Amino acid sequence: MKNLLANLWEKIVTSRPWKATFRYGLPNNPLDRSLIMTESLFFHLHPVKVNKKSIKPLYSMGLGIITTVMFIILSITGIFLMFYYVPSTELAYFDIVKLQTKVPFGQLLRNMHRWGAHAMVLTAILHMVRVFYTGAYKPPREINWIIGVFLLLATFIGSFTGYLLPWDQLAFWAITVGTSVATYEPLMGKTIQKILLGGPEVGQASLTRFYGLHVMVVPAVLFILIAFHLWRVRKDGGLAANEIPDEMEAENDN
Ligand code: HEM
Predict the structure, then answer these.
(1) Which of 16, 125, 209, 231 has the most crowded CB, counting CB atoms within 10 A?
(2) Nearest CA residue ID for atom 8, ligand 1
(3) pLDDT bucket at 2, cuts 50 / 70 / 90
(4) Cα 87–154–118 angle (5° rounding)?
(5) What is the CATH number of the domain that holds 117?
(6) Is residue 131 part of a domain?
(7) How many domains does the chain have?
(8) What domain range includes position 109?
(9) What pLDDT does residue 30 have?
């Protein structure tokens, strides 16, 4: 059985489509290994060399990656939700009821989006705590920490603006209370609230604004910032653990 699998694998990696895609066979020397990393569209996102510690599951707990996956899930489910939802004070609530009761897999779709959003807020916070705990905010990664703060803010704004869209009692009063917090700002409080709501109280103008922010502005900002954030991780040579040579780690462990 083992031989059969080994033969099959050999056949796959020597086949034309495999070679056309990956160019090199299984790497058995450092040069081939680095060529694979630099020449593959998928692998070149990673640095050529990484420290063993940085790929230990418990080092980063994959929290940044999980947050990225949540963003992708939210974007895909969000597009499908837009097929069924109209941001009108007269239709929005009933569109959501219809989605949950009549549309095939509608409830699953809505729950994936809702729980995905809760999960993204949670994992982004935990990711920030991990980065702080491992000291990865220190130079040369300070700019990525700052981008991270904006990412967290954008994640919160996405979550807040999405909350109004179902246009139920919970959403209406949560946004009424949430935006009235802005009025406590001493100089421009009332104006900020008016800008957010598009008028003196929660109404159609607020729904239109929140919808626009939620489906266009916030996802675009998150997309650009995440792209920049990941590019910085790559340019900073991978995770901060990469700067601790494996031998030193071994000495510290002893
Ligand atoms: C939408 C939110 C975010 C996404 C999608 C995201 C994504 C990622 C990913 C995929 C990584 C590399 C792998 C990993 O650590 O798991 C990373 C690393 C990093 N992130 Fe984030 N991140 C987010 C928010 C934040 C926040 C809130 C901060 C801090 C304020 C932050 C600061 C950093 C830093 C400094 C690194 C480098 C870590 C190291 O070298 O060990 N990120 N991020």
Answers:
(1) 209
(2) 64
(3) confident
(4) 75
(5) 1.20.810.10
(6) yes
(7) 1
(8) 62-237
(9) 87
pLDDT, residue 83, reads: 97
Mean pLDDT over 97-116 rounds to: 97
Say if 112 falls within a structural domain: yes
User: End-to-end distance of the chain based on CA atoms, in angstroms?
Assistant: 41
Summarize pLDDT for 12-33 with one digit per residue, the tens: 888 888 888 777 667 788 888 8
Mean pLDDT across the chain, nearest whole number? 91
Within a domain: 36: no
Dihedral-angle region of residue 201 (phi above 0 means left; psi in -120 to 50 means alpha; beta otherwise):
beta
Which tokens is 130 given? 């991990």
CB 66 within 8 A of CB 123: yes
Instruction: Tell me how far CA of residue 182 lies from CA of 132, 179, 202, 218, 224, in angstroms.
Output: 29, 5, 14, 20, 27
* b/e per residue 177-189 (b: at least 16 CB within 10 A): eebeebeeeeeee
Closest CA to 221 of 154, 162, 123: 154
Q: What number is the average pLDDT over the span 62-67?
A: 96
Q: Read off the pLDDT of each residue in 36-40 and give the average, rounded to a whole number.
A: 81
Atom of ligand 1 nearest to the CA of 134: 41
* DSSP result, 134-163: TTTTSTTSHHHHHHHHHHHHHHHHHHHHHH
> pLDDT tens for residues 190-223?
999 999 999 999 999 999 999 999 999 999 999 9
Average pLDDT over residues 107-125: 98
- Cβ of 233 closer than 6 Å to ligand 1, yes or no, is yes
The reply to whether 51 falls in a domain is no
